Amino acid sequence: MDDRKKDQSIQSHANFDGDFATGDRTQIRQDQQNQQPPQIDPSLADAQAVAASLGVDPNTGLSQAEAERRLAQYGPNELASAPPVPKWKKFLAQFKDPLVYLLLAATGISLIAWFIEKANAAPGAEGGEILPFDAIVIVLILIVNAVLGYIQESKAEEAVEALSQMTAPQTNVLRDGKIARINTVDVVPGDMVVLGEGDSIPADGRLLAAASLRVAEASLTGESVPVGKNVDTLAEAKALGDRANMVFNGTSVTQGTGRAIVTSTGMRTQVGKIADLLQATDDDDSPLQKEMNYVSKILGIAVCIIAAVVLVALALTEGFNDIHDVIDSLLLSVSLAVAAVPEGLAAILTVVLALGVRRMAEHHAIVKKLHSVETLGSASVICSDKTGTLTRNEMTVERVVTPSGEVQLTGTGYAPEGRMIAIPDAGLTSTPSPAQEAAQLEAVATLAVGALANDGELRENTGAGDGSAASDITWEAVGDPTEVSLIVAARKVKADRKYANYTRIGEIPFTSDRKRMAVVAQDNADAGRLTVFAKGAPDVLLGYCSRIAVNGAVRPMTQGDRQQILAAVERLSAEAYRTLGQAYRPLGTASLADVPGVAINAAGHVVDIAEQSDVLENDLIWVGMVGIIDPPRTEVRDSVAEAHRAGIRTVMITGDHPLTAARIASDLGIIDATGAADLGSTVLTGTQLDELPDEAAFDNATRNISVYARVAPEHKLKIVESLQRQGNIVAMTGDGVNDAPAVKTADIGVAMGITGTEVTKQSAKMILADDNFSTIVEAVREGRGIFDNIRKFLRYLLSSNVGEVFTVFGGVMLAGFLGITQPGSQGVTVPLLATQLLWINLLTDAAPALAMGVDPSTDDVMARKPRKLTDRVIDGQMWGDIIFIGIIMAAVTLIGMDMHLAGGLFTDRSVDAVGHDAQMTEARTMGFTILVFAQMLNALCSRSHDQSVFVGLFANKWLWGAIALSTLLQLAVVYVPFLNTAFGTVPLSAGAWVECLGLAMIVLVASELRKCVLRAMHRR
């Protein structure tokens, strides 16, 4: 096709688009309409005509180059999103917090106080501070905090966006004659979409092929049941719900398969036309967010109450005699506000959650929303599918039973690696007997027959290396996994050598009615002689066998042989193996026309052998049978045990046979071996669940039973809801589209990243990139650790801020007693300046608290029972820790200040000769520094409620780095001249530093003594 014809074929696709675009694409639509014929409805056009108009061959699809061209012309296949929030709005949003409002109010009060002081200064006097340093520092720190929050939030958004790209919806399309899996956003008009059960339909399209295809269109048409689809052209235009030959973007396939040619993408789809009605709603705050909002309000209210109490008390006892008293009272309010606010709390919480999400992604658990992390640690029940999650989803031949005995094959999965081991009879030595040697030879023949009567393919893929290393090679099963397992087993024992010379010439296919299949193959090494190779359900295949191969010889089959084979089938089935029998029949000729009974048509050709099974599938020779199982993942048993140790119950829900479910559950430790033998008490089927009389009986069953077999998707939903009624926090795995309701209903919906459908992934809160149960348990461990770390830095931040509030409150109320005010003086003197308190909070909030967010666990998080969602993040125990440490901090800070003030309890008499203003500056520097170091030591203490600080003291290198950084910054505030001016500090002597460190150490000692008492009480 030349370029002119390509252009014409591409342009003509607008015939089937409906409204081409909206908003900023209006001009594109107008330009296209100027060169297009009148638009028609593709449901009224023949499918081939639609394909021709779109310039695509239905047999090969678009070329990759053509698809890229159309993508550039028509844009990505996505709905127009809301305009991005401007960066300046995101920045201002950092100030939308009750605690920030409190600080802004404090800034305003500080400015008012400064203006009043300047206005009332006596002529010629200095008039106080040249600039309102308190207000300036508060504003600067608020800006710095907002910048940090903005940066951290942006990084968190980028991390979540990166993770969402890992789970971006994908679609199968036909490109260059091959099926390719591409991102849905890259689908273009004219693409041939290949649809299968569970797929989300990526765009509007006209069906070209449909086999038992049903589509759930409730999201678009409101139709409550899936709609049957076909390829027939409509005689007249119909409503969307009646367009049986069309599929629409945003709907999903519930049954069958099909192929459709894309007629509209993005905003040109039916969903795009109503995109303004599909705006996403805001997410509800998580329990942790609600708790943080609650804490913010409590702190704000508490500060206001304390400030009011102090101001009223001062007014009653001393009164406001002049403007300076008013100024001092206003500054007191500022100090209290600053002391109470943990300025970096929101930003730190966001960063800690984002880091946790990243760590989970490294363990193949992709959490879609940051605040979903907190729920993971509280899971009490994990409901898991069997296939692919608890098992490998790689069918494996483990047993081969032949007339002479039985052998076992080692190795699991699709890698053809393993060997054959003889299973000795009771009482025999490990040396193989002649019968066992015969069984091994017969096993090779059995597997060769199974590999020949086979439609599967084992594909070897070479990785990024040169293919020389085993790690560079992966194996892919193409076709039925059961058939591929026979090919793998044959290659393990080199049985493939036995059929290397055979060429298939015909097949009698498997059907659910026949329960068997057969092929006819010619032996190129034996003059092309023909042989029938058959496999199928052993009890069925036996009915077509009249002979049996034993120890290299063929003899007539006896009734005793049949009974022995059927007994072996029953034994293997009881061990949860799927059994398949193998048989063959030499036809003794190179031409099917020479086989007696084979039908010949009028042209002298052999009639299709698929219609002649009664002639070819008889007088077969039985060679043996195999036992096939989907083996459990080796790592899952340890994970189930770990979950049990953590108080988490594992529930298996599968559509498989009860025997298979019990066997796998027993192997993994979900039920014990005794329970596996007694199915009635340990396994319930979907039919049995339906027979339960009422909700109470259903709840009683789910309370005691942990294995469910032969269940439908609606049973999964009922089981989840029943477990939730019992107060459990339920994690539920799912992969099929019908699992979506149960996954969405569960507290933690978990979708399979490999086998999961797009619909299920959209419903889930977490996606397993490796489809492995062990990943869920690892995610629970990580979730518990994250929640513990959140509690650690909350304990630390709040106890530090409470200590600051108590320091300001105690310093004002005990000012005369401590020497902060002199006898006969008037007004209020705050013990610490607002700028000093802000500096402390910047140090303690930003660095150590963030380091505590990545603190390694100080105890075994999986050794305790799950947390209930009703449990408060900040409980009574933690409030006890916060208040106790806050009181100690305030006490040592005020004592340190008192030691440098004349007239106090512990005054160093050498300060008497110094004026009170100079004393107050040095005392504030002392209190300021003591409080900083006390909070650094408090960071170490806050890592556990009752465990000694010396357990894992150096485990968190980031925390020690934060402490070192805070120390350097505090030294700068004390010794750098311009910082002395801004923060009201003076350099300290060596003796003063000894006093600071000694008093700060009291916080650590007091905390350790309290923990000793708590541990002693716990041991009782």
The major sheet is characterized as: 10 strands, mixed
Q: Give unreliable regions as ranges.
A: 1-38, 276-283, 425-429
What is the distance, rounded to the nearest whole angstrom, between the alpha carbons of the first and last residues?
88 Å
Provide the residue-averaged pLDDT.
80
DSSP summary, beta strand count? 27
Q: Into which percentage range does the β-strand content fall?
A: 15-25%
Rg to the nearest angstrom? Answer: 38 Å
The helical percent reads 40-55%
Question: What is the 3D form?
Answer: elongated
Number of helices: 36
Class computed from helices, strands and strand pairing: alpha+beta
Describe the protein in words.
Helix content is 46%, strand content 15%. The N and C termini lie far apart (88 Å). The chain contains 36 helices and 27 strands. With 1020 residues, it is an alpha+beta fold.
Question: Which descriptors would you attach to this protein?
Answer:
elongated, 8-stranded mixed beta sheet, alpha+beta
Topology at a glance:
Blueprint: H1 3-11, H2 26-34, H3 47-53, H4 64-74, H5 87-93, H6 98-119, H7 133-166, E1 170-175, E2 178-183, E3 192-195, E4 204-216, H8 218-221, E5 227-228, E6 246-247, E7 252-264, H9 270-273, H10 287-317, H11 323-340, H12 345-362, E8 365-367, H13 373-376, E9 381-384, E10 396-402, E11 405-409, E12 420-422, H14 434-452, E13 457-462, E14 473-478, H15 481-492, E15 502-508, E16 516-523, E17 529-536, H16 538-542, E18 545-550, E19 553-556, H17 559-574, E20 578-586, H18 613-616, E21 620-629, H19 636-645, E22 649-653, H20 658-668, H21 673-677, H22 679-682, E23 683-685, H23 686-690, H24 695-704, E24 707-709, H25 713-725, E25 730-734, H26 740-745, E26 748-752, H27 758-763, E27 766-768, H28 773-813, H29 815-818, H30 834-846, H31 848-852, H32 876-898, H33 916-941, H34 957-975, H35 977-983, H36 990-1019
Parallel strand pairs: 9-22, 9-25, 18-21, 22-24, 23-24, 25-26, 26-27
Antiparallel strand pairs: 1-2, 1-3, 3-7, 4-5, 4-6, 4-7, 8-27, 10-11, 10-21, 11-12, 13-14, 15-16, 16-17, 17-20, 18-19, 20-21
Helix pairs in contact: 6-7, 6-11, 7-12, 7-30, 10-11, 10-28, 11-28, 11-30, 12-28, 14-15, 19-28, 24-25, 28-30, 28-32, 28-33, 30-33, 32-33, 32-36, 33-34, 33-36, 34-35
